[in-house]
Structures are given as structure tokens and as C-alpha cells.
## 1
Amino acid sequence: MDILNALVAFLNFVFFPALAYGAQLSLGALGVTLIYGILRFSNFAHGDTMAFGTMATILVTWLFQAVGIGLGPLPTALLALPFGIAATALLLLFTDRAVYRFYRVQKAKPVILVIVSMGVMFVMNGVVRFIIGVNDINFSDGQRFIISARDFREMTGLDEGLAIRTTSLITLVTAAIAVALLFWFLNKTRTGKSMRAFSDNEDLALLSGINPERVVAVTWIIVAALATTAGVLYGLDKSFKAFTYFQLLLPIFAAAIVGGLGSPLGAIAGGFVIAFSEVTITYAWKKVLGYVLPEPLEPDGLVQLLSTDYKFAVSFAILIVVLLFRPTGLFRGQSV
Amino acid sequence: MKKLLMASAATAIMATGALADAHSEVKIGIILGFTGPLESITPAMGAGAELAIAEVNTAGGIIDGMTVAPVRADSTCIDAAAATAAAERLISSEGIAAIMGADCSGVTGAILQNVARPNGMVMISPSATSPALSTAEDDGLFFRTAPSDARQGVVMTEVLMDRGITEVALTYTNNDYGKGLADSFEAAFTEAGGTVTINAAHEDGKADYSAEVASLASAGGEVLVVAGYTDQGGKGIIQASLDSGAFDTFVLPDGMVGQQLVDDIGADLNGSFGQFPGTDSQGAEIFQGMAAEAGFEGTSAFAPESYDAAALIMMAMHAAGSTASADFAPLIMDIANAPGEEIFPGELAKALELLAAGTDIDYVGATAVELIGPGESAGNYREIEIQDGAIETVRFR
């Protein structure tokens, strides 16, 4: 029984939260990694692209709710997601046409593009705040829990509760579908192959007749889909706030770099590595150990490796270690 | 958005007026975090200060018909360098005569030391509550219409002890405000015989709070004290605690009391309790009516304090007959405190008349201001409990 309690406490406070957070980071990191691989720069505007996509989705969600269209127990936002993706794709294509193309034609250095993307970031930042405001917005509807902590306790008679949220499950399922689609597209379709060719060697790809503008446009559309999906899933799970999305940029970049910039598989692994390390290293194991160990050995202290203040430091420590020993990241991406 | 447009239009009109007649005007800098972690409550705070200024202008201005113009600047709440630069700019290029601000304790301290003191400029903060500011060197220039959190720590202890709660977990937002409040509370609570199982920080604007909640849950405690912000990490912590079943009841200090939080979290928050600066004085009610008329939320955190801060600056200038900080700074305490004729919000015209006639006034304002010690609000607190999705007042302390 005690072992079961320990296991449930671990699953409830460490495993499931980290899993959902990891999936959200992975989707974000995938977008960053694609832009790095194909357009060859670190896109600082990614967090705000996510915010824009989420904002567009929220607006459509409100429209649906007003008209009375819903998905029953599932959040309405899932239905609005394609519209959000379309709006974000249009915005990104417009930004590319208006801003990035100018620098691409000049063959500007990546560092210049990074600074340009920072400018784009500030503009998007302003646009999002201007349209939807700075407040916290909760747009999740439908059923909140598949099983709540209280129900679980009553069902099993254990002391510890296990809560599984609808949004966590949706996050995992949607993330899995999105990743599967992306890999199928990159590996099996003609456009996907031309994108990979373009990423491997731009000049050779151009010689073999690949249209660079088309590759770039398709990349932006995929990035729009990934960013919007990540943003909406995150917003459903927690809530939407322009400022928080801007802050998401740091763990997302950490995830992409740990996994190996330019490597889609690495981005996914990186997302989970960052999420799990943030939660496990700063977790106070007192409760779990209290259940498992015999009475005299029960810890008095919190048994916490690092205080939660150092959560961010953990992901960056991992980042530094990875860069020291494997500069290309866990999955052999491009070195930075 | 409409409010913002109106506010900027009003400011623009005032600014044009200023150009036409530059001699009979005095500018007051309003330095608040219009971007950053407090960006959702600062619009109401700015509007509160501008409401007082508009009222004084309607009454014919201060001293000999001088109009007052507000100039807004962004403190960012977190970036001390940006806040200092903003304050410098207001002094050097706008030529302000006093500062209403800043909002967060960290940037307030930075502006005080780097700008206000070197320039000898009076500064009244409506919302910086860190205990550290009580002992900061201020050359008699710094005041605040919000109480220090040292007082709140004691009040919160009393609230908990009265409810028979002796074991709590504590989390605070990792800045001057959160740290100051958490430390003063832990000291007061431990002294009263209570136990704080864990005293852990959380960062605002973070993506995910499962790690923090996991540690708090592991440490245990009857209730969780959340010294954070309603639309920041504080809310994230509460949501994650409820989702994982870690805690059911929360103690909410001033930064956490807001209808938005109650609406966002819903029925699960019922039974949680807390306290925030507030009085049963009629001033608060009058102010809410005026705010509603002006088109902003009068109950928004620190909006009444902002009104009072701006009003105190103008009253003191009027009483001193001068807009030089050295002249009017010594008068601020007199005007805020008894004895004298009591002045409520909306009565600034009367106050100006009385002061002109040389009569002493006791500015009560929207928050029953009473400045003590180094020029900070004595601190009346309203104990509240969340019942059926509404913030109900239990009593005043």
C-alpha cells in the first residue's frame, strides 16, 4: 500500500506534469529547429508567433462559443485551431515577404537575421497586446478532469490522489499526431524531401532545380502550424498571457539546442529532457521517501537536491554540459 | 482599449494646453509598470492618479491657477535600469516637479537612489510595500500610500492563528515584494508558535509550476500561503495545486486578492481567505463611484492608493505655495495626518480652498491615509474570505 502511495505521489507530482510540459516544449522546439535547419537562423520571434496563433485561435473560439458550436467534453479551441493556424501562416508569410526575404536575397549573415527576428518579435509582441490585451485569458471549456485527485482517492482508498486533466491528455495526443505528420511529410513527400535537401546543402539543392521560395514558404506554413498548436495546447493547459508566451522562448531554445539545432528528433527529446530535469531535480522527495522507507529512516528534511529557485538554472546547466561535450546536441544537429 | 485611448487623448489635450501656456503649469511624473508583470493593474493605477489631477484642474489648479499635467513613463516593474532611465528622462526633458510612483518595490528603490535623491525630487509610491524601503536613505523625499509588508506579516499571522491554523507551506514571488512579505510573515508566524514547513520562491511569468507545487505538496501543511500576483505565478501555483490535489485552501495576501482570480479559478477557491490594505472608511466607496464614472475599476489593486499619492503631492504643493520639492516635502505628513478638516475623494476643491485660507486639513482620501514612521501608510487591512465566488469582507484589522 505504501509503495502504491509513493508511486501515485510520484506520478501525480512529477511524471504527468513533466510529460505534458515536455510535449508543449517539444512542439515549440520543433518550430525553432525547423527554421534553424532550413532558413539558418535562430528565430527569436517564435514565442510571440505562438502568442499570435493562440490569440487568433481564442478569437475564433469565442466566435464559436457565441454561435453555440462546441465539442462537448473537449475544448472548443480544438475546433478553432485550424483557423488559428491559417491566420498565423498568413502572418508569417507576410513577415517573410516584407522582412526576411530582403535579407535572404542579400545573403545576410545569420547573426543579422537573428537581430532582425528580434525586431519582428517586438512588433508581434505589440500586435498581440494591441488586439487582445495584456490580461490573463482562460479559454478552456469542456470537462476539466478525466479523473480528479479527490475522486481517485475515493475510488482507490489511497492517501494520495492522482489527477489526470483532459488538457494533459489532449496535449499528448495532439503532440503525437503533429509529430507523426511532420515526420511523414519530411520523409515521404516530395516537398518534404526537397526541404531536407535544401537544409543539407543549399547550393546543391538550387542546382538540382528546387525552388527556394517554395521551400521557404512551406517551412513557414509548417512552423505556423507547430507554433499555433504548441501555443494553444499550452494555453488550454494553463492560460493565455502575452507576457508568459514571450518568456517561453528560453526553455524552448534550451530544448532545441540540447536536442541538436536542426534535428527534429532532437527537438522532441530536448523538450522532454528539459521538462523532466526541471521537475525531478527540484522535487522534494520527502513524501515519496516517507512512504517507501521504514519508519526510523524517514527523512526529516525536504530531501530536495536544489531549491525550486534554481529550476531555470537546471535547464541551462544541462545546456552547458551538452554543449561542452557534444556541441552539436544529443542528436547531432548543427553546431552553434 | 477604449479607456487607454481616452486617457491618451486626455493627456494629449493637456499636453497641447501646456504648450500654449507653459508658465502656469506643473508636471507630475506617473512612473508605473505599464509593460511587464504588473501591466494588468497599472492602467487603473495610472487612471486613479490622473483622476485626482483632473479633479484639481477642474477646481482651478493649484497655487495661483497653475494647471497640473500628468506625464506617464514605464517603470517595467522589473528592469531597474529601464526604470531609472525613464525617471531621468521625465526630469531632464519633461521637467516634472514630483514623481507619483514607482509601482514595484525593486524599481522604486532604484529610482529613489539613482534619480529622486540626486535630483532632490519628492516621490510617493502607491504600491511599493517592501519592508526594506522603510529603512532606505531617502533624505525625507520618499513616501508611500501603501503599508510596509512587515505589518502585513503580523496581520496575516493573526488571521491564521484566529482560525487555529499552526502549520503552513509558504511560497513567494521571487522579487523584493514577495521576499519581504515572506520573511516578515515567517518571522511573525514562527514567533507566534506556528510552523512554516517550506519557504520556497516561484518566478513570475513562468511556463510551468509543477516543480514548485510538487515541492510544496511534499513539505505539507494545512494551508498554502501564496505571496504572489493574481495574474502571474501566484495564479499558476494555485491552479496547479488544485489540479494535482496538493492543497485545497489558500491564504491570499494583498497581491493575490482580485476578482479576476476568483473568476478564473472558480468554485475551488471557495473557503480560501486573506487580507489586503483596506478600510471601512467611506472614502473607498466614494472613490469607487468616481472611478466608475471615469470608466475604470475603482476596486482594482492600488488604484485608490494612486489617487491618494497624486492628491497628496498636489495638496502639499498648494499648501507650500511652491512646486519645489524642498519646500513641499516637509508638509506631506501634516496634510495626510490629523488634526484638521477631513478630506475625502472628490473633495479636493474644498481642500484647496481650505489650504489657501491657511486651515489645516487631514487628508483621508480613498484609503484612509495615515502616514507613520518614515512616511508610509500605517496599514489598515481588510480580512476577506472567498464565498460562493465572491470576495466577502470578514472584518477589518
Note: The first strand of chain B starts at residue 25 and ends at 32.
## 2
Amino acid sequence: MSIDLSQFIPTFLEESFEGLELMESSLLNLEQGDIDTINAIFRAAHSIKGGAGTFGFNHVTDFTHDVETLLDEMRDGRRSIEQSDVDLLLRSVDCIRLLIEAARDGVECDAPNIQDVHRALAKTLNKEISNTAEPLESEPDVVENTVSNTCPSWKISFIPHHEMLQTGNDVLYIINALAELGPVTQVVESENIPPLDSIHPEECYLSWQITLQSHCDKGDIDEVFEWVEDECDLIIELVTEESAEIIEETKVVANPESEPATTDIKKAPSEPVTAVKTKIANPDGGSIRVGIDKVDALINRVGELVITQAMLKQVGTDLSHHEDGLVEKLLEGLVQLEGNTRDLQEDVMRIRMLPISFVFNRFPRMVYDISSKLGKKIELKLSGEQTELDKTVMEKIGDPLVHLVRNSLDHGLEMPEERIEAGKDETGTVHLHAYHQGGYIVIDIIDDGRGLNTERIKEKALEKGLITPDQHLSDQEVNELIFAPGFSTAEQVSDLSGRGVGMDVVRRNIESLGGHVALTSTPGKGSTFSVSLPLTLAILDGQLIRVASETYIVPLISIIESAQLNHNNVKAVAGNPSLYFFRDEYIPIYSIRQLFALPNSQSPLDESMMIMVESSGHKYALLVDDLLDQQQVVLKSLDSNYMAVEGISGATILGDGGVALIVDIKGLNALKQQMSCEISHPFEHTSESVA
Amino acid sequence: MTEHESLSVVNSSRQFLSFILAGEEYATDILKVQEIRDWTNATIVPNGPDYVEGVTNLRGQIIPIINLRTRFSLPKDNDLKNRIVIVLNIDDGQKTRLMGLLVDAFAETYDINEDEIKAAPSKISVIDDEFIIGLASADDKMLILLDVDELLTSKELTPTINDNVA
């Protein structure tokens, strides 16, 4: 029977990257003598090695093997945990990641530092690695090094759970594999065999007491049992001849309910092997891996259900003038259906929501690396990691956040001496804090550094021509200039930040997600960047508007206010009424009818409404015919069957089954630019009433 | 088209669905057709080409409706009430899209042998040659066999904002 292994590769890759993340975060939290954490790191490395071996990714296997050996020495207490070792292991994690990525892409990984790290590893292990053309190919043989001269004897108590055979595991293979390590003596215990009539042929009722004489390592024995460790009760004890000292380890009983009648197993006093003590909190634990396309299909389906439900409700309401008890019942049912559908939709949406910890997890490592690079002492505080947001938003917010945190580390926090001089603790703090506010997730990046240097920013802005000397700006306005394109205050361009493509890109990215970024700064005390993002990109709160015969949706978030149009406030420039005077400001007028080239249906000017909207700090006055409802709409893309349309960010389906387009405020501006060659006149269809 | 070639090896006969457009009969490979629907009002797409009637909701998907009369510069028919929309699976080589073709009426399905398809003389109409697979005769009528993939690929739909403005 041959199985196409390649179908499992994506799973292996995904699990390996997760394993690497776990190794990384555990290494950063590692304290002396913390066996649980080392075990967790070891297990992650071991799974990667095993998987890589199965799929023939030999570079990964070889490299990980040495990492595993080092970890094994730490685990056994043969090596104390030095900072240098942790550094080396962290670098090794990076290398394994590179190697796995190379294996995934089917290319040779030739990054020179991998060989350096591999040599450093070998050196640490007191082992010469042959310096041949392909050092990574050489099969290291470290196992022998770690073995004492006596011939130890291992006592293994192996009690399979009843259902172990059903997962395709065969006890005979396991015992044969043990026999390869050394002579095996086994005693089969058969007292748990039930009466013949209740025997289930696919269940395993036997258990084994095995004695193995071998120079092998405990890891080698663990490896034999690797695939069944969750499906059996396993005790592996080393009986050394000199001291008769027993090293015990108990595997957690994976499935307590179905535990066979073997309650007399002696449990070692050690704690059960728990999940690592990291901040990756996973409170409920239970999860399944589902393709995102399946979830999206489900979300679409539910979206349709909502529409169908709205349609039925309409039909029901139309029927309600019939004096008939049945109609009443129908309406009752429909109301109930509405409730159920809404709940269902909310539940389905929640599937896409993940805790922000997935993004936060990368920061401890980053802070660790940067603090050693810059010679700064930095403490990273994380809070609100369980705050949930949509996976799509999460994928896109990672880079802007990294940039903001780097900025705080690089520019915000001072060197230790400087901090002491300023009377602060020499360790600077960067605090990432996430919380929900309205329909938004807010992520604050708070540092207690020097704060923004308003004077310096002003000088720089003058130098770059972003402001003129006679402009009077408040400190806050000056500070906001760091978001202007092409602005960078770094005195020295470091490889961390200061390439001048910083903050404006950050702000653009955040705004393209429908969010915004704010900043507050107190000189000498620190600064806070506040990023707000919509919880999901799949749903949007919209204001329905009517222009000519069409219904459009304007995102509620961009609306400042709406009002009846006041003719006296319409100001003409070069003969065109193109500005609207509103709350002491002259705001450009955008006529949707004109920008979207809609048919010239008449709409008297005094019935028009004006919606004040804001995008990227600019205000626009949108002219519309009428304001309709506000409602939550499910976003659909136009380009999946058609293509992207300028000025439109997407579409949605209304309760009556019709399609309404969603206005993209920023896109309108671009549209206006394109049309600016044409002489524009926002009121051209109603010019009589203006005149 | 490779699909056509491979089909001709297995089975020399292809099925076509024909429809009426200003009295002429056109046909498309029936395998491209997903369904036929009655016309319902579409939502106008701002600044789109004039032959894009708008977008409409097909069971939760938003699909564009192409007015084939406008596309072929045929006289405009203002009464769209009894028109039908043929929903097609359009493959532009990268992905498949659903698009609706607004036509006057659905006519018939025909089995047509590959060798009965005659090449259309070049430059016979405003319709570009690459949109026409060929001509065929059925019941004494001429069928114009359209290559809808070519006809409805996205480059044909590119909005021509400057044309509109000009």
C-alpha cells in the first residue's frame, strides 16, 4: 500500500512553522531549570525533525537533529542553560525556518549563516563537523557521545488504549523497532482481555512490560513510541547498574474517559506535561484546522440566507392585509427566522475571528533582537492579547504594527545612560495594549521614552518643504507631520527604521483597511500611537443614499455629518459652484451624480442633501438626493466576476435582492482628478435653480 | 481552442445553444452556459462601457450583465421586459467568471458536427473575427457561432472613462 505523502506536506509545513513559533516564544521565556519549557521546545524540534525525515527534507532533518541534541543535553541537566546557548538556539530556529521554506519552494538554501550556525552548534556540542563541500549532508552521529560505558537497561511499561489499533498503529512494529536498539525481553499482560462475547475485534486489550538493554538515549525510545504516545500509557525508566537510580517520566493520559482498567499504574510525582508556560494563551484548547475557503463559503451562504429571510419578510408584510390567522402565524415564524438568521450570521462571522496574540507573538523576539542590537534595555508588556479580530485584518496589520513598534524602540526609547540622567528607570518599557471600542479594535503602542521632538520635526518639515515658515501649527499638528510622505527624522539612518518610507506608509496601510492611527506625545514622558481598525472587513456599517434612481452605500465611519443643502453656503470658484462653506471651512463639493455619470434625472437643488465625509484627513461635501436607512451590509467584491471600479469599493445585496454599490471616498477623489480636465459643474443638471 | 480540438477527437459533434438578437441567430457552446434567467433590473456601474448594462445578484454573487445588442452596435431596444439573460462561465485563462449576456430571446439547442462548421469570411461585420468560431447551417438558417470566452474577457470590459468624458 503506497500513500502519496505529498498531500500531507502543507500540513507539515503549517505545523512546523507553528512549532518554530512555539520554540521561539518558549526560548524567550526560558528560565534556568525550567524542564517543562525545555521539554516543549524539544518536542517541537522533534516533530519537525520527524516530519522532515518523512518527507525527505534532509537538510532540515540534519540541522534539527543537532538542535535536538543540544536541547536534550539541557533537558537531562547535562548542560546548564547559558544565555549564549539560548541565542544560538534562537538563531537555529531562524535557520530551520529558512531551510523549511527552501524545502517548501524546492530550492537549495544557500544562506551562508546557516552553515555558520550549524558549525557553532556542532562546536557547542563538542563535535567536529566534517568540513566537506556539503557540511549539511554529513550524518552527525551524536547519539554515541552521550552514552556511558555501562550497558543500561530500560524498563518500559506500555499499555495501549483500547482504540490504539484503530489509528493504524501496530504493536509488533513498535516492538521490532525497539529490538533494533538492543535485546528486548517482553512480558505480555493479558488479564484485561474481556469475556469472548464482549471482545471487539478492533480493540487492543493487551499490555506489555518490556526490558530493553541498550546504550541508546531516552529520546530514541521516545521516538519509537512517538506516534502512539497519546494513545497509550507509557512509562520509560532507566535502570542503571551502578546506582539503580530511576528516571521516570509519565506521559499524560490522553483520553481519561476511555482509560482502560489499569488504574494501578504508578504515576510519577512530576507534573503532567502541560502546554508551555508562554503567553500564547489558548484557553479552550479545542480547535480544528479548516480551510479559509470553506469558512468563506459558509459566510457567503449565510449572507444569502439573510437576504432570503428579508425577502420572505417582505412577502409576509405584503400579505398581512389578508384577514387570516395563518398569515399571522407566518409572520411570527418569520420574526423567529430573522432572529435565528442574525445569530447564525454572527456565529459564522466569529469563526474568522482570531485573538490578536497571533500578531503580538512576534514582538518578544523582535524586542529581544533589537534591544541587543541597539544596546538598550527594553521591557515589552503585552495586554489584551485575547482581543479578537478578523483574520484578513490580522494578516494586513502585522507589518504596520512592526513598523510602529520598531519606531518606538529605535526613536522613542533612550539609551540606558540617557534614561538614568533623565531620572528614569534604565529599562525602557514598550506596552502593546489591545481592546475593543465600538465596532473597532484599538491597539495602543505606548512607550515611556523621550517623546516626539517637536522642534526637530518642525525644522525637518521646513527643510523638506512640507510646511512654510509663516505657518502657525500647534504641537499636535507638528507631531502629525511625521505621517507626511517622505518624512523621516532619524539623525542616522539605521537598518531598523529611518528609511523615510516609514510613517506615511504605515498610515496609508491602516487607512486602506478602513482604520486610522492617532498619536499623542509628552516630551520626556513618552508617546502613544493608537491604531484603530474595523473588526472585520466582511461587514460594514453603511448609510444608504439615493442619487437619481440608484441606491449607494456610504461607509458610516467616514461620515462626519449630514444636513440639508443650504444654497447660501455654496460658493463658486471660476464660475463653478465648487466649494461649500460649512462650520468655518471651505470644503470641496463632490457630486455623485456627476462623478458616476448618472442619467440626468431632475432633482431640485433644495431637496438635495449634503453629506460631510472625511478620508485621509481631507473633508468632502457629497451631494446626494436623499438619505435612506442605515444598515449593516455584507461586503462583496465586484472584481470576482467583473472588475474593480474606480470610486466603488465593493457591492452588497439589499433586502429586496437588488445590488447596491459601496462608495469609496478615497476613490472618488481619484475619479475627480481624472475628470478634472473636463470643466466641472456640480449642478449642471439643475443649473436653472442655481441661476 | 484546445478544448474544442480535444473534443473533436473524442466526439465530432458539439452542442450549441442559440439565441435571437435583432432577428439574427447566434449560438454559443452549450458547455459554457450555466443557466438562463429572466431579465431583472441591474444596478448601474459608474463609468463603465455602454454595453455593460450593470451588475445583478445571482444567488449571492454579483455578476455583470453585458448587453449584446449594444456590444454589436445593433439598434437599441428600450423595452427590456421580455429579454432573457444567459449566464455564462467565462474563462479568461486565469480565472473563471460568471457573466450574464442580455439577448432578445432564447431559441434552440443544436447538435453540430465539427466538419459542418464553416470558417466565417474575414471582416464581415463590426464583430471582430476572433469572437466568431464559425458559421453553421441548421434548418435552413445561418447560425453565427460565438466564442464567448474571447468576447467577454476582461480586456474587453475595461472601463473607458476618458471616452465617456470626451
Note: Chain A has a mean pLDDT of 76.
